[in-house]
Each structure stands twice: as C-alpha cells, then as structure tokens.
Amino acid sequence: MSAVNKEQIEQAVRQILEAIGEDPNREGLLDTPKRVAKMYEEVFSGLNEDPNEHFKTIFGEEHEELVLVKDINFHSMCEHHLVPFYGKVHVAYIPKGGRVTGLSKLARAVEAVSKRPQLQERITSTVADSIVETLSPHGVMVIVEAEHMCMTMRGVRKPGAMTVTSAVRGVFEHDQAARAEVLSLIKS
Q1: 54 in a labelled binding site
Q2: Catalytic residue of the set 80, 121, 173, 174
Q3: Is 118 a catalytic residue?
C-alpha cells in the first residue's frame, strides 16, 4: 500500500472548509489543511502494518497458563464517520507448546490494527485471529471497551455510552471457568 498523499488531503480539507462556509485563508485556518494531513498520516499509519509481524519474536517458555495484558489504551477512527473512538483492549491467551510472545507485542498489535479506518468489532476479531494464526495457543480472548464520538458528538448524542465487544477462540469458547477467570481478572 502506498504512503499517505498529504497534498491531496490538504486540498480536500480546504474544500471541506469552503463547503461549510469557512474561509481557508483566514489566519486561524491557514495551516489547518497541513495539520490535518499530518494527523491523518499518523492516525492511519496502521494501513501499512501487519499485526502478525509483531508476533514473529517467540520465546520458548514452558508456560501453558493464562497470560493477560489488560487496559491497553487505544484510539481509532470510525470508518463510517471518520471521527475517533477510543478505550481499552484486554488481551488474554493460554500459550501452547512453549510459544509465548513479548507482552509489548500484544499492545503493538492492538496499535497496528487500530490505526486505520476501522470498526470496533473488526479490531476485536483481527487481534484475536492474529494471535491464533501466529502463536497457535490453546485459547485467546480479546475484549474491547470503547466510547464512540459518532454517538457522543452527533446523532444520538450520548456521551459516556460504552460499547463492549469480545472475540473468543479455542478453549475459551467451551471452558466457562477459563472465561470467567479472564473476566474476573479484567474487572479486578
């Protein structure tokens, strides 16, 4: 995939400013198209990143019990309205065959997936599937909690409403005790 075309974004932002009745040559707006283009380059940097790449480093550790990284802060852009949504991701997995990854790699995968025009549901399943594909664990559970600005600042206008999504793979699909353990640890 090619790099972000900042010049094209700048032109589009100028057109949007004109379309809403603003003067893009007004002092406060002069550099806005440039700032927006730079911001888009940053917030959509995940378009050029494969989350599976973060799991290439695998450690041989005979640990086949729960690994949970909770409260991974993230932000993304709703692909329907191009406004932010943000919150926390909790990633749990049970390694198999001594295949564990660095804890920071879980957060890096979340970052890679969230930095694209996105849906919360897709972030949740993509992170879970990426772990399954690369680590082949006994099970994976990913929970995402987020507030969506498309519900807060427009439309229904309900600030504070949280959307929760989950993706459950492997042992967590059938073992209610394992699933309950993860949920309990996330709440604690």
Answers
A1: no
A2: 80
A3: no
pLDDT of residue 3: 84
User: Does 150 count as an annotated binding residue?
Assistant: yes
**Residues facing residue 60 across a β-bridge:** 99
Is 138 one of the annotated active-site residues of the chain? no
Backbone angles phi, psi at 74, to 5 degrees: -150, 165
Does the active-site annotation cover 120? yes
Query: pTM to 2 decimals?
Result: 0.93
Tokens standing for residue 120:
């919360």
Please check the confidence at residue 1 and state whether its pLDDT lies above 90. no
- Annotation marks residue 150 as catalytic: yes
- How far is C-alpha 174 from the geometric centre of its chain's CA atoms? 26
Which CATH number is correct for 6-44, 2.60.120.1440, 3.40.50.1170, 3.40.50.740, 1.10.286.10? 1.10.286.10
Give per-residue pLDDT as tens, 64-76: 999 999 999 999 9
